[in-house]
Amino acid sequence: MPLQRDQLLAMVDKIPAFPQSVHRVISLTAKADCAPKELVSVIEHDPVLTMKVLKLVNSAYFGLRREITSVNHAVVYVGINTIKNLAITVATAGALPKTNKAGLDVDALWRHSLSVGVVARILAAKRGVIPNDLPNYFVAGLLHDIGKILFAHFLPDKYAPVVKLAAQGKYSFSQIENKLFGLDHGEFGAILAEYWKLPGDLVAAIRFHNSMHLDIESDTGQQLCCAISASNAIAHYLFDEGNPETRIAQEVTDWLGAPVSVATASMEGIEDEIEKALAFINIGS
Questions:
Q1: Going along 86-169, which residue ranges are E strands?
Q2: Are 244 and 236 spatial neighbours (Cβ–Cβ below 8 Å)?
Q3: What is the pLDDT of residue 42?
Q4: Domain residue ranges of the chain, discontinuous segments joined by +
Q5: What Å distances lie between residue 100 and 107, 110, 139, 157, CA to CA?
Q6: Which CATH class is domain 5-280?
Q7: pLDDT value at position 250?
Q8: DSSP 26
Q9: pLDDT value at residue 220
């Protein structure tokens, strides 16, 4: 039986809300004239957020030559947009359930999502996306599958067969979810992202990463969705031995400029990049 929106909202309402400090960070960084000092002040008033942001900034992923010991220096070295996305990452990892009774391997899901984020950032850089916007691609990849965690947590008995059937490879998670629930994990994840008041382009990327939508409001949102859909296919191709060519929309292939198998050939060294980013998986613990 299809799930109704009020049922979904009732489930989402049980997920912990983002801390006010993170909402404030998102609000401040949405402004073109965001004042770094104000951003630093908001983060520093949240000791847990401060600690975890600094932990990520000092991880191998950023590869900074010196240890960063203050939020002010973190903003200087990695930029306002990166700090925003680190705050979103920290809050998401802290809010979502770590285990479930549906048999969904959450650790494997996060590693796949991490791979998608790393690939998306690389693809975006190759397409000339400005450095300040590249963190948006990484965090969109990292969060694109959060809807699976929601299904597994709230509907474990109904979702367990989905996990088993998807593992056989004949049908995708989205195909099975749509048939059983009337929506897929992209839509469920986007509803949570909207509840958390995440940026619109990020919500769209989560919603449409499995079913490309041509009427996304902004060009940046359209490009972000294409990148996440393509990166999702590449990550499956690289690590799951899947055949994503039949599962992605033509506009995604057009965005890539080549079939997934060809685009994947340019991903040399991707395993090392993913290893550097592993700190993002356990940041909520």
A1: none
A2: yes
A3: 97
A4: 5-280
A5: 11, 14, 23, 10
A6: mainly alpha
A7: 78
A8: H
A9: 82
